[in-house]
Amino acid sequence: MATDKRARQRANRAKKIESEIKNERKSKVRQLVVTGLLIVIGMAALMAILNLTGGDDSDPVDATGDSGDHSETSTSTTLTSTTLTSTTIEGPTSAVSAPAPGATLEGTPECPEEDGSSERVTQFGEAPPMCIDPGATYTATVETTLGTIEFDLSTADAPETVNNFVFLARYHYYEGAPFHRIIPDFVIQGGDAVGDPPGIGNPGYQIDEEPPETGYEIGSVAMAKAREAGSTGSQFFIVTGEQGARLPTEYSLLGKVTSGMDVVAKIEAIPTTDVDAPTEEIYITSVTITKS
């Protein structure tokens, strides 16, 4: 009898221990589930905040920091410097790093030397004076780490926009600036030389937009901006697909690619993160302006 009683006691203890272990495991599972939900909710909240915050010209065509960002409109995208929403292209992104800054010019800047001999400047106290000949033809040759892209500038239709781009290029602003946003069949965006992360910076001023009357096409080069008017800065985008060609006419049309769409395609093919940032860095090494 004593032996049977001890056996029952051992069995009861074993059942109790087994029950405690199961309860402990259930408790740990519940804790893990709750922790996981909190992480997911936190990440969702963070992404929502980032998507509502603008940077330079990250709006695709939307730029909230740089004045030249763009906010994308790929079914619901914006080309701005910090986010992509349905009518603009934005940034910021974190997969690429900012180049070393150049000098700062306070007050009203002088026009840069046409021969490219001016020092590199990345911050200006005011918007540039008119430094180009509105009656002349200008071409930009953009050297990147993947090849050369050339485009004619729309001087006749957007003289202030072209003047701004030429001004920045001749001050070597774009050297080292990355393409920080890539959206296949939509746009590739770059031109922020000071934002950290790229997509939230600007050259220290903003100018008004000169949107086209007839819209965009594949190969069009346009300036990014923030959601508000008069926020164009340094960031620009190149339309790579039909979605980009359907962008609303809110962005200054800078020009049209005449050579190097194969290089644009190489850039567009780079894998991206969930915020449209390239997983490998692609930079502008120089921009040369030719007048004719």
Could you write a compact summary of the structure shown?
The protein is an alpha+beta fold. The protein folds into two domains: 1-52; 54-292, Cyclophilin-like (Cyclophilin), CATH 2.40.100.
CATH top level assignment of the largest domain: Mainly Beta
CATH architecture of the largest domain: Beta Barrel
What summary fits the major beta sheet?
8 strands, antiparallel
Work out the radius of gyration: 26 Å
Q: Kindly report the name of the CATH homologous superfamily of the largest domain.
A: Cyclophilin-like
Average pLDDT level? 79
Number of domains: 2
Low-confidence stretches: 44-58, 64-78, 80-94
**Widest β-sheet, arrangement of strands:** 7-8-10-9-11-6-5-12
The H/E string reads: HEEEEEEHEEEEHEHE
Total of helices = 4
Tell me roughly what share of residues is in helical segments. 25-40%
Number of strands: 12
User: What's the N-to-C terminus distance?
Assistant: 113 Å
Question: What is the global morphology?
Answer: globular
Strand content of the residues, in percent? 15-25%
